[in-house]
Structures are given as structure tokens and as C-alpha cells.
Design goal:
Mean pLDDT: 84
Helix content: 10-25%
Structural class: alpha+beta
Shape: globular
Strand content: 25-35%
Length: 231
């Protein structure tokens, strides 16, 4: 079992329903933490360590939210005569900034300090995630990865990752609670955008802190089964 301390000066966890106004989750979602750990060890396959259990805690008060304005590009894909007219007017592959850029508001979290506990007893991989994390921290030269290590969006680079110490501060653990006010995604399908969510509240460490990373179970199509029965 591994307990990690992660410090990130500035990041964002965009909500699933966010569009032009990029709202952020106030706490790191389990799906994001799982992706972060895979990035740490240089693993590109999201299904490699299915079954691993994570427990997420926050150190200190809730991170403050800052709101910024940034430029966002919107490109429209045209076909047929409309595409020919646009190429004739602007040139192929050229899009005027004035027509396809607009201001976009985004929320950022600052001074985020979290603790992640990893339990690989039910990990499906032959080499467990906790073992690969230990290798990445002790002998990083054995890990093959590219790019900076970020938490959330690619620009949310972390200050560092190490083993948690008691001097880091008191941990407020996320505990699974059906009536909790904190809703976070556990798994997101990158193709459809759908996923599984869990509600949480804060409390002391207990068995309900463990979040199992698994593929969502697809529910049968009730409409099709009913129509077959009626026939």
C-alpha cells in the first residue's frame, strides 16, 4: 500500500457539463487521479491497472478558486460549396482570428495539496501499480514517459510527488456518501463522454474511502427487450 503527497500550485478539473464557462470541480476526481498515476509511471493503456483502489484526501482548507479570461478558438468544418467559398475567400487552412476566436472564462484552483493512498490487492496487472509507483519514485531512470507531469489539464504541472509525512498536515478524506454534496467522476468514456459518478462527504479514514477503478457495467437496452417480447 502506498500513500503519496502531491502538491500542485495551479490546476483545473473541468466539470463534465462545462462548456464556454469552464467550471472546475473543487476536489480532484478519482478518474483524474488514476490518469495522473498512470502518467507518473509512463503507462498509456487506461485499462492496465483496473481493479486498483484509491483513497483521496485534502490537506488544509479548500483551495481558493480564481476566475480568468482566456482566448478560445472555434473552427467550423464546412463541406461542399461552402468549403469552396471559404477556401476561395481566405485560402486553404487559413481561418481569420476575428471570426473564430472569442473570450472564454475558466476557473482555476491554486495551492492544492492532496494525499492519495493506493491499494493494489485487486489490481489486474501482473506488476502492481504500487510497485511501479515505487520504481518511478526511487529510480525514475527506469520509467519511460514524455512531457511534464500534470494534474488535471496539461498546464497544471505539479511541484512534486513523494511519500506522505505527518508533518505535511491533517488529512480530510473523501468518504463515499449517497447523500454527500460532493459529486465526482470515477470513470469517463473518452469516446462517448459518459461515465460513472460517486457522491462523497468529508470524514476520517474508513473502508468507505476506497474507490475501486473499474469499467462501468453497460445496462441492457430495456426498450429493445420490451419490443422483442411484445413481438
Amino acid at each position: 500500500m502506498t500513500q503519496l503527497y502531491i502538491e500542485c500550485p495551479c490546476t483545473s478539473f473541468p466539470r463534465s457539463f462545462a462548456r464556454d464557462y469552464k467550471e472546475t470541480y473543487l476536489y480532484p476526481p478519482p478518474s483524474t487521479i488514476y490518469g495522473f498515476l498512470l502518467s507518473l509511471i509512463g503507462e498509456e493503456d487506461l485499462t492496465t491497472h483496473l481493479g486498483v483502489k484509491l483513497a483521496i484526501g485534502i490537506i488544509g482548507d479548500d483551495p481558493p478558486i480564481s476566475r480568468i479570461v482566456r482566448k478560445q478558438r472555434h473552427h467550423k468544418f464546412a463541406i461542399g460549396q461552402e468549403a469552396k467559398k471559404r477556401i476561395a475567400k481566405y485560402g486553404e487552412g487559413i481561418y481569420p482570428t476575428s471570426n473564430f476566436s472569442k473570450p472564454n472564462h475558466q476557473e482555476l484552483l491554486t495551492e492544492l495539496r492532496i494525499v492519495v493512498q493506493v491499494n493494489s490487492h485487486e489490481d489486474s496487472a501482473p506488476v502492481k501499480l504500487t510497485e511501479r509507483i515505487s520504481i518511478a519514485l526511487l529510480t525514475p531512470s527506469q520509467i519511460t514517459r514524455s512531457g511534464g507531469l500534470s494534474l488535471g489539464e496539461s498546464n497544471g504541472l505539479v511541484n512534486g510527488v513523494r511519500t506522505y509525512r505527518e508533518s505535511d498536515g491533517v488529512i480530510r478524506w473523501l468518504v463515499k456518501d449517497r447523500r454527500g454534496l460532493i459529486g465526482l467522476p470515477i470513470w469517463i468514456n473518452r469516446t462517448t463522454g459518459q461515465g460513472t459518478f460517486q457522491r462523497f462527504s468529508f470524514g476520517n479514514f474508513c473502508p468507505d474511502c476506497w474507490i475501486s477503478i473499474k469499467l462501468p457495467i453497460s445496462e441492457p437496452n430495456t426498450k429493445s427487450t420490451k419490443s422483442k417480447k411484445s413481438k
